[in-house]
Design a protein that fits this description.
alpha+beta; five-stranded mixed sheet; 7 helices; 12% strand
Length: 204
Amino acid sequence: MTKELLTLNVNGDRLTVAAEPHHTLLEVLREECGLTGTKHGCELGECGACTVLVDDLPVLSCLTLPAQVGESAITTVEGLARGGELHPLQTAFAEEGAAQCGYCTPGMLMAAKALLDIDPRVTREDIAQAIAGNLCRCTGYTAIYEAVERAALEMRGTHRTTLGGSAARADAAGSSANERAGRAQASGAYGARSAERSADGPAR
């Protein structure tokens, strides 16, 4: 089959690549864009290893065609660090021993980022729901929960500093309902998007 040119917005860069039209976003990111941090796993939308963010929401790239993404902003694990500085989640995962074999880690990081970007004031239940679509066979999840909690604590400090004193308190009081809705949206993104794209089976 003849390759077609397509343009994707990945990690803040606009990339034009030639790809087979039936290839998934996972395949295009890895094979055409050279971004191999996103992992091949089950390719059935069940393990979460292929998770990326599309417009800040977690998406299973093994079930997504690039045409479905269009002009949306895609973030892969390679886009977490900024200016050579690791994201708090990356640092916390390393320091808490949350990555063992490491295969599931990129997907875990992206799912957790989607949650904490909405509001870093999360509970362990929020974290468990957010990464429910990501399977890990090494850590038993406790270290992962602790790493996300550690990153959340650091990001809460940044969040307060950015908003500032009384403004932060007013914002917190006035937006709690929206934040809860946002967390539910991030946590439920797997189910909604997977069901949508699994109706006809995985794209190959």
